[in-house]
Each structure stands twice: as structure tokens, then as C-alpha cells.
Amino acid sequence: MKILVLNAGSSSQKSCLYEIADEALPTQAPQPLWEGKVNWTQDKGVAEVEVKTATGAKLQESIPGDSPQAHLTYMLNTLTRDVTKVINQLSEIDLVGHRVVHGGQDYRESVVITEDVKKAIANLSNLAPEHNPSALAGIEAIENILEKVTQVAVFDTAFHSTLPDAVAIYPGPYEWVDQGIRRYGFHGISHQYCSGRAAQILGKDLASLRLITCHLGNGCSLAAVKNGRSIDTSMGFTPLEGLMMGSRSGSIDPGILIHLLRYCDYSIKKLDYILNKTSGLRGISDISSDMREVTKAIAQGNTRAKLAWDMYVHRLRSGIGAMLTSLGGLDALVFTAGVGENSPGIRQAACEALGFLGLKIDLEKNQQQPVDEDIATDDSAVRVLVIHTKEDWAIAQQSWQLLK
Questions:
Q1: What residues does 35 pair with on adjacent strands?
Q2: What is the pTM (predicted TM-score) of this model?
Q3: Residue 264: phi, psi to the nearest 5?
Q4: pLDDT, tens digit, for every residue of 241-273?
Q5: How many Å separate Cα 354 from the centre of its chain?
Q6: Which of 97, 180, 287, 362 fits a disulfide with 399 by CB distance 3.0 to 4.6 angstroms?
């Protein structure tokens, strides 16, 4: 079975093609036959298309025009032509799986996409305005390109649908619950994949483990996973809550927002932009939302960059502490995503605060670019894992399982 995966971002559309035997899923992620990405640059009317195949063929082109569907069509056509050809025709694709950020309260697992599902994704766009519309555009583009193919929506919020009410419900008036205002949590596809992969690496039954998964990228979130189920998470009603992030503030005193609206002539639009685009590492360092650039600036003696680092670490440690109390103990701490996988300094700083648990990080292993490895010392009471998150493979897995 050939499964195409589309993972829509706010300014990009990533895609890959997997081939999976009809009989059973492989225990570990195979290499995609083909991977593609469309990136809409700041230059209006231009898209950057990058494609590579499992055999090493590559394509990189700038495509004019302002139609995302046309750009996506162009990228998908590279599946069947020239050096990046991996199939003879697009009709060979059996199934298309989409990452959809927000599924609301109604979608607690992956579903085959129908008109009702599309309407729900559209209606939830006000809760995920940078992502749900992009996912919907991808779904509709595939309808035009592959008219009869089955499409599946895999929701980032679904893994967190097991949160207890005491965790999910906010302490405002109870009518908020009826209005759908509650903690949804995000990065669920990544947290779920990394939980399962952690159990594989440790040779344990997932149902026996207490895990804290740290998805640290430009967006950051934590999940407390007990017996394979999410029981707590740091992101909430929107992806803005929780940890300090690349350009998002994370949790702040809501009284600040009231103050800014009332006394500082802030519009809702300006407030939204500042909290999501010019806060976090970018806002404090005044350098970048990229941890690598912040780290370089620290080495050059930049005090604002050092402050941003210290704040990031403090909030990460505090968040891990909150997840600990929900779990009542810890078997493994998992780091994933861009910062989690590539910043040994952040991993070390987070782990240093957890020595009281008997957690001991192996400093040498931590520096060696570990991938899907345990970097705790042999005598550590808590395992420390670095896992390369594979959301696209998780989407393919769930789509295959749903069709079967």
C-alpha cells in the first residue's frame, strides 16, 4: 500500500510517500520513497520546492505564481517524472493522511475525511488559524489531484483527549466548558510516537511506563504519559500556553493582557501578533527565535541572549516538575524535536535539576548527537532518551490502521 502524507505548516507543506505491506506494519519507521516540501517565502508569488528520494535523487526549484494548490500539484507531479520519479502515475497512491492540528472535542482519534469532517476542520480554524486552514487547503487540493483516493485526518489534539477533567477544564465559569473552552493540548502526534518509541528502546511495555515527553522545537510542549495515555500536558486551549518557545510567550499572567488592552492602546490584532510572533526567545534575546542563534550570541557575551536561555531553562524545569506531580514518579525523560534533539546544553540544563530523582545524564553521550538513544548513566534511576520524532510516519501508521 502506498500512503502519501501531507503535513501542513503555517508557511509550508511537507509531504512524503511510504510503501507499507498490506499484511502488517513494520515495527520501526522505514525510509520514505520520496519526500517533498513547498515553502512559501516572503517574496510574494514565489514558492521554493525541494524534493528528494530514497535513492538520493534531489530537486530544488523556485516556482512562480501565488496558487498554493498549483505549487502542491507541481511538487506531487515530481513523484512521476524525471530524476525524482518513484511511481508511474499518481493513481498508484492508495491513501492520503493529513496532519490536522485541531480536532476539537468531537475528534478524539483519526477519521476518514468526509464533508462533515472538512466542515469541522474549517469551523475549528479560529482555534488554530495558522494551521487548520492550511490542512483544509491540502485536503481540497488532493480532492482535485486524486479524485477518488481515501483521505484520513490525523489530529494533533487526539492523543490528549484522555486528559482527566480536572486537568482539562479551566478554573473560570463552568459555562466555558459548554463553549468548548478547555485544555486540548498539541503536538500529540509527536508525543504519541515518542512514547511508543521510548518503550521500544527500553524494551518495556508502554503500559508499564511513566514518561515525560519534551517536544522542544520552535513550538514547545510537555506531556505526562502514564500507561500509554496522556494525563497532563503544557499546551492548552491554544498552542500559546505553557513553556517559553521560539517566538511565543507561553504562559503569562492574564492580568498583563487586560492591562495592555486597557492602558497601553493595544489592539487584539497587535496583542495576538506580539504573543505569537515577537515573544519567547526572539522577544527576550532580540536576536532570533532559533536556539542555535541564541547560543552563538551567548558565546559572544550577549547578556540578553543569556537571559533568554536562563528563562527558557527555568520554565522547562518548572514544566517538567508539574508533569512529575501528575505522574507520581518517572521512568524516562524524553527529548525530541529541533531543540530537544540537537541542543545538548538544554538537555543537560534540564537534567541537572532532577538529580534529586536519582537521574544522572552521561555528559559524553549527551554531546555525541544521539539519535534514539538512552543518554543516562548506567546507574541512573531515570532513563533519559533522545528520540528523533517521526510525525509523518506516525500519520502513515494511523492512516494504515484506520483503513485496515
A1: 16, 52
A2: 0.92
A3: -115, 15
A4: 999 999 999 999 999 999 999 999 999 999 999
A5: 25
A6: 97
